[in-house]
Amino acid sequence: MRSSVLRRTCATAVATALAVTGLAACNSEGEGAADGKTRITVNCWPQPSAKIDHKRFDEDVKTFEKQNPDIDITAHDAFPCQDPKTFDAKLAGGQMEDVFYTYFTDTERVVSINQAADITEYVKDLKAYKDIAQPLRDAYTVDGKIYGVPRTNYSMGLLYSKALFTKAGLDPEKPPATWPEVQAAAKKIAGLGNGTVGFAEYSAQNQGGWHFTASIYSQGGSVVSEDGKKAAVDTPEGKAVLQNLKDMRWRDNSMGAKQLLIINDTLQMMGSGKLGMYLAAPDNVPRIVKEAGGKYEDLAFAPMPGGKGTLMGGDGYMFNKKATPAQIKAGLKWLEWTFLTPGQGYMNNYARAAEDQSPVGLPEPRLFTGATDAKDQELKKASANVPVENYQAFIDGGQNLDMKLEPKHGQQIYAVLDGAVSAVLTKKDADIDQLLKDAQSKIDGILTAPR
């Protein structure tokens, strides 16, 4: 196995290659190597600054290579795993790793520009694949062909501060179940003063559009029609989303004066004890603790208000269109070993995670079904080190929600909806009807554009 220095050098060369025509890609040799090994490159190795995660990933690569001496893995470290500023350029330049990280929302676009390998005939040898929940498998399926393997999934809910609920005279064991209840609770929390914000919402970097989508799902609506050919935001459900935000921002003054927030803002606000609620996935909890000084016992989760639906998303890996059959097989073997086997590898070695004082017991990701899910939950419960009771409402309530995947062309749609959300939160006289009409037209354009 190559040294970490070589890995990072290759990653740097990739970035340089984006600006230099003709520079060879960092894809590995594949099945023609003189020593008989199949070499693959993979990305999303945690950066060295994330010392424990970086170390564990490296250990797992070494263990896997020892168990599979015919496979050599070169991992590239990165944060974030996918940078929108360079992702498209790497794809277009043919510089993507053999096995590369993607969001569910990337699938259609990567396939449409012919940058992904069809792995349909290979996944039959992946033991865990059949136990992955069908909607998650569908996220990497286009026209009946499989192009990727899910790694994690999430669904949105209401993350709230038990401490601020108590301080504001609210019952932390009975979180808001409807949007009017969210409004009322946010107003009480903001009434504590001293810069306390009752409810926060993203409205920049596509994150506002992402949350608009989750919120319209919670109202029983959607952002696109069922056949995916028309926008569906200029509706009573879409208007309810923006009206709710406008009321909390300008009528109740429960959202604070600072807007155009992104995820890092809400993490810091919640960790510092200045935020009562915001929409999030459970993976926000450890980030609030690790990065913003929060406490696990103060953070609780409830299902999406409204009781009708929630947004479900996730990530996984696709394969470079230039990958050889041997590289695809080796890559799938690695993915199954480290991400798809309960109790093993980087994602699911819960005993090791607890030893590292990483959180174990969060309600998601929950990738599997059937016996594999049962085994995974059993192992997770045995090593749990967070207050799992704080997430029970989220687990119970989620059983009754319509879990809807992010829309195709999600990032483009989110960029449009960002404008509507940011306008409502920064302009007191924002015209909701006009904002939705404009968004409807722009999204229609995205959906009908030639691919």
Describe this structure in words.
43% of the residues lie in helices and 15% in strands. It is α/β, with parallel strands linked by helices. Strands 3, 6, 11 and 12 form a four-stranded mixed β-sheet that branches. Strands 8-9-7-10 form a four-stranded mixed β-sheet. α8 crosses α9 and α10 crosses α11. The radius of gyration is 22 Å and the shape is globular. 47% of the residues are buried.
Helices and strands, in order, run as HEHEHEHHEEEEHHEHHHEHEEHHHHHEHH
Protein structure class: alpha/beta
Count of helices? 18
What is the quaternary state of this protein? Answer: single chain
Shape: globular
Tell me how many strands there are.
12
What kind of sheet is the major sheet?
4 strands, mixed
Radius of gyration: 22 Å
End-to-end C-alpha gap = 40 Å
> Residue-averaged pLDDT, rounded?
91
Strand content: 5-15%
Q: Uncertain spans, ≥5 residues at pLDDT below 50?
A: 1-25
Helix content: 40-55%
